[in-house]
Backbone:
């Protein structure tokens, strides 16, 4: 019998890839809208299993912060049909670097994402270069890039990105923006900057 659960939070539950398996095989969560799996030890294997899950057609938000996805997990997520329906995606603290950012940027599946949280990863300026060219970037209203080894170069790339007009919230704190911070402030007047 399908459950009426709309939000499921399994954060900090000691879940590993094997522990997530029963959730990916369930057929009882058709109304699930938000899935929080933060602070576990999930890897690319979990992303592949979630990709195969078919019983979550209402899912609009996934939070995978503080896991062990790395670039391989970001690449698997970018190729997953799971992200096609998401509006909110949190990948904070997952060891994602430039290759993972490139995979996400190139994904045709992120077109519905409005809020993207990549804080405390290591995407760097080359990752920003890829993200600002993403065809889905123009849909974002919230972009969180805290502590990602972004320098003035990455800040200027963000400031000159033509497709960030819908952005309402931009967080680039804990990066070494230098003079690039001025370009960010000029470009995103009226946007909540952090």
Residues:
């Amino acid at each position: 019998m399908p459950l009426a659960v709309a939000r499921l939070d399994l954060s900090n539950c000691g879940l590993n890839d094997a522990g997530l398996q029963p959730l990916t095989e369930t057929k009882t969560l058709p109304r699930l809208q938000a899935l929080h799996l933060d602070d576990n030890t999930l890897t690319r294997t979990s992303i592949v299993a979630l990709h195969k899950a078919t019983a979550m057609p209402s899912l609009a938000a996934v939070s995978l912060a503080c896991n062990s996805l790395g670039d391989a997990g970001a690449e698997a997520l970018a190729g997953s049909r799971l992200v096609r329906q998401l509006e909110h995606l949190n990948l904070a603290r997952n060891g994602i670097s430039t290759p993972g950012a490139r995979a996400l940027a190139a994904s045709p599946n992120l077109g519905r994402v409005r809020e993207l949280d990549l804080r405390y990863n290591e995407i760097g300026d080359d990752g920003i270069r890829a993200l600002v060219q993403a065809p889905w970037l123009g849909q974002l209203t919230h972009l969180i890039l805290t502590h990602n080894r972004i320098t003035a170069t990455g800040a200027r790339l963000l400031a000159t990105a033509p497709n960030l007009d819908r952005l309402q919230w931009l967080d680039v704190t804990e990066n070494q923006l230098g003079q690039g911070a001025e370009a960010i402030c000029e470009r995103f007047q009226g946007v909540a900057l952090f």
User: Anything to note?
Assistant: The chain has one domain: 7-193. The chain is about 30% helix and 10% strand. The first helix runs from residue 17 to 25.
